[in-house]
């Protein structure tokens, strides 16, 4: 391309917030430029679908959740997964430990549990319940909407949240009112449903392997750098530039929380595939008939 | 009349689908981006019963919502028709409520009215009432001089009479808007279901969206469209009948 | 009780010429009086000034002791949601029930009371409209071409009936019919263009009542006077 | 007129807030359900600049969207006014499009048109055009006999003239609907921003909702309301001026 | 070229009585002819049947060789978006420019061409409306009370001018004015109630032209005939 830099579009899954910390960092701190790439990082959103955009040519790389990938594969979409950004799924349930005590799945019995019908949390919750032989009748399901009022007003005991982004905000609010919160993490109870990962098209991998390589290297370097303790100030700087609406102290908490999900230990490289978790995710979706036949998701996990 | 509406809708829908398929095969898109015909057929077979029931339930709420919003629009329109302080106050209020994206006020509605049927009805009505209101305001604020003169000069004019005269003189316009608003009531109900996520086709659409299942969405759109074509057709026929009864030889 | 206008000046907003430049006239006695003049001279405007539908004029309108001044015109309509008969019933005070029946008959509307307004012929529409005004309480009624589309014979009976029925009310009959105005009206206020002074001339008509017959010569004389005045 | 609209809006908004606070203190709801006055004040101070800019940007898109949808509505209304097959076909199409919840067709729109400015404008216009359409249809399908007669019998009637006559005779109604539709254009744009998650106050509302921050939402509603009151007032003043210019002595 | 109606039966949908029960008449020669009859007898209905605005009648309307039949009535309006003068310009074919100027003058509208329709007095409105029809190509023009609100003197000049200007066209003049119809019309078709047979009578009027003077006795004679016929 002109000027030597390759133009690329990178479509995120969600709005700019802490969950895309590494992506932003890589862009802001010149990692892409270093790899001779000119990457436009685009926000995601509720009606966005990176995999569709890959096929339509609106994007070159994107972020999608594992269930999206598996669903796309089952419909023949030529999608390839390049990295698994979250080692632990940030989708967890918030609750008030003063009111309910949840230490094991069985404790969910007779509780009112918020679930987004059709959402990942529904799939995860069903799997959790089934894993302990509970039926849906054993809990009271509360249909989740856009807002938290039912949880706030104690109409529901547990409510699904993204623990790294929404978690700190809601904890902070409830703490101000003198209430304690805790999070119920499905992965701690054996349900590992993979969340965000970096995707691209088969064609991209086949025709421009070098570009893919450079992009992934730069991106993952960005992620690693963003979560280095010594870079935390710079990371916060970048984040607050994109996420204007979250106060600094909360951003700090979000960053720390996110670190635990993407880099649970120093030994784990960000982007590593938890292949077993991917297989479990596929299995769960098959069991719940979200896909009709196995897709062999394993085959499209390509570590660059 | 009814069959015409239906086959016209079918033409339109098929045209839309055809465009989608054209895009699909032109760009070689996978079934994930745009479902294949076989996909669509299978999905239709699989869900039409359940979606059909959903649409029926949505329609029944929509009908109530429409009645409520017609009532609401007439009330606000009648109050807001005057150029008095109070009239303009009502208008400002009615307009403002409309400007707010429903998703933003939904939480407030749920806080104030709980999450029962009422809240959903309110949301549906709020989406539907505004266009009727605009028409009613337009009609109600324009005197029909040649008719009103007598009542005015003989001191017989009451607001009820004024409203009656103006409504009657603009009956065609009113019935057009009212029967057209069925569409909006339907859309409003679907949005309410989408937000409150409990039942109806809006709820099913939401699930399909979460699962990025375009074929389910297309089936839902199809069922919504055809149901509405029938309902709309019936309403218009009724409107024409009223019109005829009233102006048989005008 | 008397009606008078003094030094009326009036110009429509945005218009380039004045309609009235110091117009004055008075009608001192009740009865069937006329407002006469060529088309466009300002009869309708004057009528509206008298009843207060037009403001923004200068000068003075005096309607001493009269509180109910009505203005009716030939383009009015009745709502079409019920028959004209039902409309008439609705706006007729109980005390005027008899009046109503008499009027319906003389106006030749008996057969049409079951129809809606839009189903009537033009002249029938004119009649039903005028009728409802006659059934109101009023001291002055201005009839602006209220019978313009009614045939002459019916019109004659109507005028005679009105005169017999309401001898103590003021009427201002606006019409373009020379003969009729001369024959039936008492005072005839002829309005003339704004350049002529005075802007009105008052003449005396024959004021024919029921069962009287016309003196041909007097009629011609009166008509001539009017023609010269206008 | 303008100041009146503004303080009327303030009254309404404050009334709304008062109700919320009443509920809050009556039921002892904590600050995270309904923010405290202090909360609100702090949030206002913190975000009013940035939200103000957002609202301004949304308004500018809304204005374009309104123009587009007025144009769209007039076009469809003029085509659909006839009782011919084609007219009813156009109407069926226009009605159907409206019935679909925008969230359900948004993915299709994004597939077909990408996610640029055009898609957002389209979504905004789709939300705004329908009420105008209904009015235009009502007005356009009703002949003004006393005026049209001459042109018809002398073979001079063209559709442009017919449209002109009917529009002119119903100018008040049209300006009411058109100036009222500003509200809808605003709502439409906000929804489009909400869905497409791109910019403007709709985007900010989305974030606030995600953060479950009611005070930010209330501030956003406040800014939207006051901006709209001003815009609406200006539009109506303009409408009155047109009306006057045209019917100075009617 | 001739106009005739044969055995027209007509009843408004939903109405209880027939308007026409075998009505027939014919007008054999061009000129200024009249359709006369009491209010509500069916003149407007007949006019609309002739031009085809009402269908659903039985019987036959013959307008041999005439292709352009126009019907004008006194409630028509001109759009208010420009002055009546500009409207008139717009609908006047170039070839009729002179006609137009002559008409504007005789109609007494010279001073008002800059006003909009809604700013005119009723009689002015009537005149401008009739004028635009006269500027069209037509073989037959029905004038349904087109001059009803115009003063008699202006009306007379207008009628005389029309007769002079369009000697070879068919006119059907609908008016309630005995004198005028008798004086200016050539054939007078008197329409009578549906119970009278035949439903029309044709009389001969005086057909006065410009600069002719009326024979008083003949006029009275004609008026009497009409009165008896109706
Ligand atoms: N709204 C108006 N704006 C401007 N000029 C007007 C308006 N209405 C009437 N005029 C003018 O004022 C004059 C008087 O009008 P008016 O209607 O009073 O006449 P009139 O005597 O009733 O005539 P006619 O017998 O034709 O009804 C006319 O020349 C007319 O052009
Ligand atoms: N739309 C209608 N529906 C029913 N009856 C009608 C309708 N229009 C007219 N009529 C009746 O038909 C008769 C003839 O009406 P038409 O208007 O032709 O009379 P006309 O001779 O023109 O009277 P005028 O001199 O009062 O204008 C009237 O008695 C009227 O009541
Ligand atoms: Mg007048
Ligand atoms: Mg008639």
What does this structure look like?
The complex is a heteropentamer, with one copy of chain A (304 residues), two copies of chain B (250 residues) and two copies of chain C (230 residues). Chain A contains twelve helices and ten strands. Chain A has helices at residues 21-28, 31-34, 50-56, 66-74, 120-131, 149-152, 166-176, 202-207, 209-226, 232-242, 248-262, 275-287, and strands at 6-11, 37-42, 61-65, 79-84, 91-95, 112-115, 140-143, 159-162, 182-184, 196-201. Chain A has a five-stranded mixed β-sheet with strand order 2-1-3-10-4, sandwiched between helices. In chain A, strands 8-5-9 form a three-stranded antiparallel β-sheet, with helices on one face. In chain A, helix 1 (21-28) packs across helix 10 and helix 7 (166-176) packs across helix 11 (248-262). The radius of gyration of chain A is 19 Å and the shape is globular. With 250 residues, chain B is mostly helical. Chain B has a single domain, classed as Orthogonal Bundle (MetI-like fold). Helix content of chain B is 84%, strand content 0%. Chain B has helices spanning 2-27, 37-80, 85-99, 102-113, 117-140, 145-153, 159-169, 171-196, 200-210, 214-246. In chain B, helix 1 runs antiparallel to helix 10 (214-246), helix 2 (37-80) crosses helix 5 and helix 5 runs antiparallel to helix 8. The longest helix of chain B is centred in the first third of the chain and has 44 residues, at 37-80. The two termini of chain B are 23 Å apart. The model of chain C has no long low-confidence stretch (mean pLDDT 92). Chain C has helices at residues 43-51, 84-91, 97-106, 122-134, 152-165, 178-184, 216-229; strands spanning 2-10, 20-27, 31-36, 58-64, 69-73, 140-144, 170-174, 187-191, 200-204. In chain C, strand 6, helix 5 (152-165) and strand 7 (170-174) form a beta-alpha-beta unit. Helices cover 33% and strands 24% of the residues of chain C. Chain C has a single domain (2-229), classed as P-loop containing nucleotide triphosphate hydrolases (Rossmann fold, 3-Layer(aba) Sandwich), CATH 3.40.50.300. Chain C has seven helices and nine strands; from the N terminus they run E-E-E-H-E-E-H-H-H-E-H-E-H-E-E-H. Chain C has a six-stranded mixed β-sheet, with helices on both faces. The longest helix of chain C is centred in the C-terminal third of the chain and has 14 residues, at 152-165. At the B-D interface, helix 1, helix 3, helix 4, helix 5 and helix 8 of B face helix 1, helix 3, helix 4, helix 5 and helix 8 of D. The structure holds adenosine-5'-triphosphate (2 copies) and magnesium ion (2 copies). The site of one magnesium ion has 3 residues of chain C, from helix 1.
């Amino acid at each position: 391309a002109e000027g030597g830099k390759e133009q690329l579009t990178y479509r995120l899954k969600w709005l700019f917030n802490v969950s895309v910390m590494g992506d932003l960092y890589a862009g802001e701190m010149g990692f892409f430029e270093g790899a001779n790439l000119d990457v436009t990082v685009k926000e995601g959103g509720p009606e966005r679908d990176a995999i569709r955009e890959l096929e339509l040519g609106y994007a070159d790389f994107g972020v999608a959740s594992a269930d999206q990938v598996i669903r796309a594969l089952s419909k023949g979409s030529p999608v390839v997964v390049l990295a698994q950004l979250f080692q632990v799924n940030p989708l967890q349930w918030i609750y008030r430990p003063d009111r309910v005590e949840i230490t094991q799945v069985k404790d969910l019995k007779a509780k009112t549990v918020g679930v987004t019908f059709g959402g990942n949390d529904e799939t995860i919750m069903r799997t959790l319940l089934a894993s302990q032989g509970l039926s849906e009748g054993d809990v009271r399901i509360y249909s989740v909407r856009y807002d938290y009022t039912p949880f706030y007003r104690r109409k529901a005991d547990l409510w699904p949240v993204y623990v790294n982004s929404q978690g700190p905000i809601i904890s902070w609010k409830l703490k101000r009112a003198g209430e304690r919160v805790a999070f119920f993490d499905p992965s701690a109870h054996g349900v590992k449903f993979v969340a965000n990962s970096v995707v691209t098209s088969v064609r991209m991998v086949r025709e421009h392997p070098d570009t893919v390589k450079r992009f992934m290297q730069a991106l993952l370097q960005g992620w690693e750098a963003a979560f280095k303790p010594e870079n935390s100030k710079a990371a916060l700087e970048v984040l607050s530039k994109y996420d204007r609406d979250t106060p600094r102290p909360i951003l700090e908490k979000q960053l720390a929380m996110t670190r635990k999900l993407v880099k649970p230990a120093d030994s784990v490289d960000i982007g590593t595939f938890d292949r077993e978790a991917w297989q479990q995710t596929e299995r769960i979706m098959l069991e719940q008939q979200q896909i009709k036949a196995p897709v062999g998701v394993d085959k499209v996990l390509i570590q660059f | 009349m009814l069959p015409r509406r239906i086959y016209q809708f079918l033409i339109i829908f098929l045209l839309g689908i055809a465009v989608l398929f054209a895009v699909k095969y032109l760009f070689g898109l996978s079934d994930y981006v745009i479902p294949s015909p076989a996909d669509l057929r299978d999905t239709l077979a699989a869900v039409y019963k359940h979606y059909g029931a959903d649409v029926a339930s949505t329609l029944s709420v929509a009908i109530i919502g429409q009645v409520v919003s017609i009532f609401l629009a007439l009330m606000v329109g009648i109050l807001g028709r005057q150029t008095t302080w109070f009239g303009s106050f009502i208008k400002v209020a009615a307009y403002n409520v409309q400007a707010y994206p429903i998703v933003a006020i939904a939480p407030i509605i749920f806080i104030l009215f709980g999450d029962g049927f009422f809240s959903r009805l309110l949301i549906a009505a709020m989406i539907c009432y505004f266009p009727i209101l605009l028409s009613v305001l337009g009609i109600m604020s324009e005197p029909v001089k040649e008719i009103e003169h007598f009542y005015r000069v003989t001191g017989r004019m009451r607001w009820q009479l004024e409203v009656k005269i103006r409504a009657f003189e603009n009956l065609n316009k009113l019935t057009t808007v009212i029967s057209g608003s069925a569409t909006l009531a339907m859309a409003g109900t679907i949005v309410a279901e989408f937000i409150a996520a409990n039942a109806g086709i809006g709820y099913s659409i939401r699930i399909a969206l979460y699962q990025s299942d375009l074929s389910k969405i297309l089936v839902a759109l199809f069922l919504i469209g055809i149901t509405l074509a029938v309902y709309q057709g019936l309403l218009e026929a009724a409107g024409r009948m009223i019109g005829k009864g009233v102006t048989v030889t005008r | 009780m008397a009606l008078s206008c003094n030094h009326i000046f009036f110009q429509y907003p945005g218009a380039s010429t004045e309609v009235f430049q110091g117009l004055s006239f008075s009608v001192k006695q009740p009865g069937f009086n006329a407002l006469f003049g060529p088309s466009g001279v300002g009869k309708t405007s004057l009528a509206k000034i008298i009843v207060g539908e037009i403001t923004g004029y200068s000068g003075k309108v005096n309607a001493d002791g009269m509180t109910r001044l009505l203005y009716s015109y030939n383009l009015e309509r009745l709502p079409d949601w019920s028959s004209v008969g039902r409309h008439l019933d609705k706006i007729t005070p109980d005390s005027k029930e008899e009046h109503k029946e008499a009027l319906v008959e003389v106006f030749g509307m008996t057969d049409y009371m079951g129809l809606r307004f839009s189903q009537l012929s033009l002249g029938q529409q004119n009649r039903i409209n005028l009728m409802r005004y006659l059934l109101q309480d009023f001291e002055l009624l201005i009839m602006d071409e209220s019978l313009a589309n009614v045939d002459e014979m019916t019109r004659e009976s109507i005028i005679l009936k009105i005169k017999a029925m309401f001898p103590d009310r003021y009427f201002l009959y606006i019409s373009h019919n020379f003969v009729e105005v001369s024959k039936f009206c008492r005072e005839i206020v002829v309005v003339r263009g704004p350049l002529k002074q005075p802007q009105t001339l008052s003449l005396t008509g024959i004021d024919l009542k029921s069962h009287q017959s016309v003196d041909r010569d007097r009629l011609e004389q009166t008509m001539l006077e009017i023609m010269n005045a206008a």
